[in-house]
Known about the structure:
alpha+beta; 3-stranded antiparallel beta sheet; 12% strand
Amino acid sequence: MEHSECKKNIMAVQDALDVINGKWKLPIIISLVFGAKRFKEMEREIPGITAKMLSKELKELEMNQLVARTVYDSMPVTVEYSLTEYGKTLKKLIAELNKWGIQHREYIMGKH
């Protein structure tokens, strides 16, 4: 691979990691892979996340057009979060990360 090709690859992967990196973004995305959720549902589903952090991370994911926030005009008002069509493009990546994570755990635990 040429030096410039290497740089392009590094930059592309770095761009992707900048969007999904951090302690909470992938767990939030994974939660939404299983369907649209209300805020409290995600808060219960993701161990250790605070409401403040969930709110912050959801806003960043919305800004990057991976998550959509839908407000329903009901009593009381209902807010639901879901992956956008663009966000759904992460499903294959998450499936591969899951597969690799399982293999890695087995390898490290000496089950290879």
